[in-house]
Design brief:
There is one protein chain. The chain has 366 residues and is of the alpha+beta class. The protein is globular. 32% of the residues are buried.
Amino acid sequence: MPPPDTNTHPFYVPFSRAPMKYNPFRPGYKQEDIDMQPLSEAVSNLLGGEVVRAVLLGRGFFNVVYELEMRTGPPLVARIQWNFKADPVSSSWAVEKMSREIAVLELVQRVSPHVPAPRVLACDLALNNSVGAPFTIMNRLYGEDQWMAWPKLSADDKITFVKSLATSTVGIFNVRLPSIGSLEKLTSDGLPVIGSILPHTTLLPVEQCATLEQIHTLAISVIPRDDPAMLIPVLVHLDFNNRNIMIKDATVSGILDWESHSSLPACLGATYPDFIRYDGTYDPKYGIQTRLMPTKECWPTQDEADTLRDVFREAAGALSSDFVRALYKGEILRQLLELVSCSTCSTEGMQALFTWEQEIAKSRVS
């Protein structure tokens, strides 16, 4: 089922009207009607070898992904941008988004090579290339999406997986960056260049919350200024959820979709995986996260999540005391920022923010 066709983003259009031929939601779309020969030739020119066939693996809001079966050697993956407007600013945004992901993946591979992120083998980000859109070629990662695999795991396998996830999470946390923002590129010497978190525009109208005195006061009071290590910028995968994590043999076999990332203070970068959280926006009493998507079965019960958080924290602590300290010291601040973000989207979110703030205020007094 296509996503809602009501997007008002400044750089991409409602899904059915995206102009790219690879748009899987446009009227009359048929995969068999798309000529994949230009992609096959581009891969041959960039990497050598012959593409035997291209098979659609999946599609997201911005990219379609094809498995490329090669005449010799392992299969590859092609990731093609399909959803952005045709004006120069929007086109630039699409190219920047993909180039930033390439830089992030290269940095992760260098600093934390045990993190199972894709490796970019080649790319062509030109808008007028033979394929008709910016694309990357990556190695193929194998496994099952976490949300699909989770209900089939035994209790012991779930513990094994969460320990593995802690290892990958700490690996990402260990990627230190020079300042807060978003990784723009790497210099010729491999040094990260940091730009704005949201290039070109601010997408969330947070001004309405920033003026609330009690929220502002709370935010200032919970910043852990007494611990300099908590303010060191670290890499954060902003889409680190059960749709972008792959499982094989009860361990993390792939972490996908690195386009959404930031460099944030360590106290914000350390967090529990979303699916085992029952705090902040994930507290059922606020009704913000329904725990029904993609399926109800891929979310642990609260008792199970409590146990798995202990497992995660212990496994992470064995690798990085800074991570666990940031997990604790940044807890209130992370919840606050998430709730502020939700409050800009709905009345329910605003009410949840006020209720949460009152509860936190009482607990801090007591």
